[in-house]
Each structure stands twice: as C-alpha cells, then as structure tokens.
Amino acid sequence: MSARPFLLLAPLAILAACATSGPAVDGRQPANVDAVVDMTPVLRFSPNQLKIKAGDTVEFRNISAFTHTVSSRASAIPAGAVPFNSGQIKGGGTYRHTFTVPGTYNYFCDPHHSAGMTGVIVVSAS
Ligand SMILES: [Cu+2]
C-alpha cells in the first residue's frame, strides 16, 4: 500500500514539469520564444496573422532560399511602439522581436512587399 500515493502523484509531477517549459504554440519554438512565423519560398509570412500578448517574443524563420526582411513603419504600428527592421535575413536565418506595446502591427518584407509579403500581429494587453 505504501507505493500507491507515489503512483497517484507521479503524473501530476510530470505535468508540473512540462508547464514550466512555456506555452506550446506548435512545439517548435525554443525557450523564450512565444510564437514562430515562417518566411516561405512562396514569398509569404506563415502564419500571416497572429495574436499574441504584450511581452511575447516572436521568432521569424527564413525557411526559403530567398533573402527576406521583417520590416515595419511607425505609421503602421501602435503609437509609442518603436519600428523594427530585421535587416536582410538569408535562408536559414532567424530574427526575434519582443512586442511590448499592445495594438496592431502591420509589417512587411522589404524586397517582396509589392509581391504581397505582409503580415499582421495583434498584441493584447496581457
Ligand atoms: Cu521576402
């Protein structure tokens, strides 16, 4: 009988350990990354619409052979937020940005903006 309390508690301990590793958006993101957006060979951000919370960090991953950017303008992000620009990201490269100001961020890939490579991230207050 003495082993039974341990058998009942062991699954709870495993769940608690998993909970400390952060939210599992898609199982691909490393620690400290809350969401992942791919930059694709068909000149799109995927997903191109994303909802996160203030303070979340998004990792943009270039999974294509093209050079992409993650760029924004002050006129298309919330007042008080600082525009971000990744610079050129070669294939296989990544860029991370932490969104601290709530609101709607419209961003784009500089070389492929006219091809429709744009995205929207909506940041909620908490
Ligand atoms: Cu691009």
From TrEMBL:
InterPro entries: BlueCu_1 (IPR000923), BlueCu_1_BS (IPR028871), Copper_blue_Plastocyanin (IPR001235), Cupredoxin (IPR008972), Plastocyanin (IPR002387). Keywords: Copper, Electron transport, Membrane, Metal-binding, Signal, Thylakoid, Transport. It is a peripheral membrane protein. Residues 1-16 form the signal peptide. Residues 34-123 form the Blue (type 1) copper domain. The crystal structure with reduced Cu(1+) has also been determined. Cu cation binds at residues 68, 109, 112, 117. Its main location: membrane. Gene3D superfamilies: Cupredoxins - blue copper proteins. The keyword Signal applies. Pfam families: Copper-bind. Its cofactor is Cu(2+). GO terms for molecular function: copper ion binding; electron transfer activity. It is found in: Membrane. One of its GO terms (cellular component) is membrane. Transmembrane segments: none annotated. The keyword Signal applies. Belongs to the plastocyanin family. This is Plastocyanin. It comes from Silicimonas algicola.
